[in-house]
Design a protein that fits this description.
The complex is a heterodimer of chains A (200) and B (112). By secondary structure, chain A is mainly alpha-helical. Chain A has a domain of 81 residues: Up-down Bundle (Four Helix Bundle (Hemerythrin (Met), subunit A)). Chain A has 9 helices and no strands. Chain B has 112 residues and is mainly α. Chain B has 3 helices and 2 strands; from the N terminus they run H-H-E-E-H. Chain B has a two-stranded antiparallel sheet with strand order 1-2. Chain B is elongated, with a radius of gyration of 19 Å. The termini of chain B are far apart. The chains are: A mainly alpha (200), B mainly alpha (112). The interface between A and B is large, with 89 and 78 residues.
Chain lengths: 200, 112
């Protein structure tokens, strides 16, 4: 990703994050969070992770935020009677993240990371070196598949590669995630049932 | 001029710290929950950045198909986060129904 675009999306992400904790009104916080997630989705797209970027906008900025705003609306919140934050809390909220950030900066300043470009030539090379024609190999892709066709044209078939990985190597975790969603659905119904009427 | 891995990691770390500060600072449970989501998103950004910057080396040549294992993990993180938000907000609604508040200073039944 080109640096100016990267800094634009990074600024959107971080300002959105600051807005979440700075605004007193929870609805403003929720809208800032949408901005932050859209910024992160832009960063994902810049990292050639198109599918995950779309997923981030659809699931987070779409579904989850609607859920948040819906609950805020439902709860009819009154302004807090506690006016300001106590100084020890503010000190902790500044110091502990600063320590974490300091550690991160120290580690990163000692590492050397070369930027890797994804372009037409490298994708054409990847089609030959990174995919296997051996059906037993974990990175096996059939010879006349769409993945190989697009790679040899110098395009990145992001969704096809993810789908291939998800339904071969990761199909058991996918089933487990399906079960988790079922449990969450049942849990929501149980939690939101009216407890008074169920006791009668 | 292209953004390097370190820049992505710094942005992700900053976002994580913002979310963490929010969890410590804010007293509204819904906003605390949003800050938790921010921290999860920061972790996702780290994972995606690492998938993109992993070189594949074979016989001297370096090619660059992204490493999709990390993106699988992000996919599962997003799914788990959606389930977590659904259950968490249901708990918050149940809490509000019984205590008429979602302010953490009022929720002292455990005498913590």
């Amino acid at each position: 990703m080109l640096s100016p675009i990267f800094y634009l999306f990074a600024a959107i992400t971080l300002l959105g994050g600051i807005g979440v904790i700075a605004w007193k009104n929870p609805v403003s916080s929720a809208l800032c969070m949408v901005a932050s997630f859209v910024g992160i989705a832009g960063l994902f797209v810049g990292l050639n992770a198109y599918f995950v970027g779309v997923l981030q906008v659809l699931v987070y900025a779409g579904a989850i935020m609607v859920l948040f705003i819906f609950i805020i609306m439902l709860l009819d919140l009154k302004p807090s009677k506690y006016a300001s934050f106590p100084p020890p809390t503010i000190a902790a909220a500044i110091l502990i993240p600063l320590v974490i950030m300091f550690q991160l900066v120290v580690v990163i300043s000692k590492t050397e990371a070369q930027p890797i470009l994804i372009n037409e030539a490298s994708l054409k090379a990847a089609e030959k070196t990174e995919l296997s024609l051996d059906p037993e190999a974990p990175n096996y892709i059939a010879k006349d598949s769409k993945i190989r066709k697009e790679l040899s044209e110098g395009k990145l078939p992001d969704v096809h590669l993810i789908g291939n990985k998800l339904f071969t190597e990761f199909h058991f975790p996918l089933q487990v995630i399906g079960l988790l969603l079922l449990v969450a659905t049942v849990g929501c119904i149980v939690l939101s049932r009216n407890t008074n009427s169920s006791q009668e | 001029m292209y953004a390097s891995l370190n820049e992505y990691l710094i942005i992700s770390g900053l976002l994580f710290c913002i979310g963490f500060a929010g969890v410590i600072l804010r007293k509204n449970i819904i906003v605390i929950f949003m800050c938790l989501e921010l921290m999860l998103a920061a972790a996702s950004l780290t994972l995606v950045a690492f998938t993109r910057f992993k070189p594949f080396q074979q016989e001297g040549a370096t090619t660059t198909l992204p490493d999709y294992d990390g993106q699988m993990l992000v996919f599962f993180i997003i799914t788990v986060a959606a389930a977590e938000v659904a259950v968490g907000l249901a708990i918050i609604v149940a809490l509000y129904r019984s205590r008429q508040t979602i302010h953490t200073d009022d929720l002292d039944a455990l005498k913590g």
